[in-house]
Each structure stands twice: as C-alpha cells, then as structure tokens.
Amino acid sequence: MTNTQDNARSILVIGATGPTGIEICKQALAAGMKVRVLVRTPSRLPADLSSRLEVMQGDVLNSDAMIAATRGMDAVVSALGTPLQRTPVTLLSRGTQNIMQAMGQTGVSRLLCITGMGAGDSRGHGGFLYDRVILPLLLGQIYIDKDRQEQLVRASNLDWTLIRPAFLTNGVKTGQYRCIGQFEKHDRMGKISRADVAHFVVQELQRGEYLRQVANLSY
After folding, report:
1. CA-CA-CA-CA torsion for 183, 190, 202, 91, nearest 10 degrees?
2. Domains identified in the chain and CATH numbers
C-alpha cells in the first residue's frame, strides 16, 4: 500500500460532526493539514469550521461514498460514535469495515481509530464508577461493538493506531496526559478532554510513534 509517510498532510475525518471529531478537525487545520470530512448532515458542522474543510456528504456505510472520500488522502481518522442504546449496535464495526475496504481500494494505509476505555484489554482499568456502573449499564451494547471494531482493525494489514480515551470531558487542551500501551494490573484511567485526544491524534499523524499499537489516554 502507498501513503505510509508519518507526516500526513491530507486527512479524512469520519465522525466529524461529533464533539471529538470537531476538535480533531480544528487542531488538524491549525497544524496546516488539509482536512476532508464525510458527513451525512453537513449543516451539523459549525459554520466557521465548515468553510475551512473539504466537506463531502455521504454515509460511512455507503461503499461508493467512502471510496470517493478516501481517494487521495494520506490518512483516515475515525471518530465514529453512536447514541446510547440498549439494543445491539453494529454501526462501529460495519462502518470500520467499510472504511478499511475503501482504504484498500484507494491505496491509503494509515488509519487512526478512536474506540474507548473499556474496549479490548482495557476493560477493568477505568476506575470503579466507570467499570461497575457506566460501562455495564449505559455503554454495554456499544462496547460489544467497539470490541468487534478493534478486532477488525488489529486483523488488518493497515498501518493502524487504536486510540482509547478515558472518560471524555469538554475541558481545554493541556498537552499533558498519560499514554499507556500495555496496562499493569493496578493501572487506572480517569478522564481526558476531547481537546487533548485531538492533540494526540494530530501528533500521531505527524510522528507515527504508535504504528500497529494501542494508545490508552488519560490524565
């Protein structure tokens, strides 16, 4: 595959109308990157941001739309999210599968995929309230699909990075946070701002320090 350079100059952001996706777009633009977004409802983008993006209307589950959006990019950032629900969730895994297929067809190999604390081997490291209440009662179905999402990414031949933020806040960017690859038994992750998650994403696009690795983020 092509486009494996560490310093990505053109990126596609999926999930760009969510609060984390918006922050990623802002910081990537500030870093001098060309930012393309694929969104179902362009009007959900802030007007002052939308004017600086290349906006394509479409759905992550539409193969043709994904291929068109991915073509010519150096990297794809997935900040896919889904509303809280108690019924089975498949959007994250199906969307990620579609993203990866489009990348394969367009020769783009760099993927940064944001999942969350509680996915994969991070389960049990989120702190008492998160692990015992929030995750099982509110996020259970979503995290079943996040597990599938991570398995798909890990099994791919892409230059992937899985990013697992702790409990997300709307705080400011500090640039000061922990990034843990492998957990020790007693490691606990608390919270992190969306702005600092975006800070990590932009740095990783520039440096490529976590190729085919997991980055668990928390203060």
Report:
1. 90
2. 10-218 (3.40.50.720)
